[in-house]
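thread: overnight batch results

M.L. [08:02]
morning all. the overnight job finished for the chain we discussed friday. pasting input first so we're all looking at the same thing
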Amino acid sequence: MSSQDFQSAFALFRDMREARIVDLKGSYLTIMTGLMENHWPELMEAFLDEVVEDPRIEVGTHNWNSIIHAFCKAGRIEDAERTFIRMGGFFDVVMQLVEKANEMKIFIDKWRYKQAFMETHKKLKVAKLRKRNFRTMEALVAFKNWAGLNA
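M.L. [08:03]
and the structure it wrote out:
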């Protein structure tokens, strides 16, 4: 398949979104699978960026991991690291985990999550996120408050 084929698929997918078609999951998965099989992580990333805010499509951590894997497989480690840093899902997942653990009265080691944050996201600024992704910004602020990193 050529890049032009996928550009056509993207255009059709956009038309489907604009037409307010409810079930886009199959089309989304087909495009992501095709991009993965043809080793086009940059197109996967562009496509994911376009659909990440659409509530009809569930973008999970595994989607970001697929992009990171494809970049690594192509030897593009810098791109893989950049994608990992952009993966704002870290905060959403941690906050969901914290909420569930509190619900079930299970102890959570804040130190482990603080350490993971400091190793991978210490340069992440709320001001930058405010411009790009409000939901991720909210999750980041909640995580920092929970972990005690707002000093």
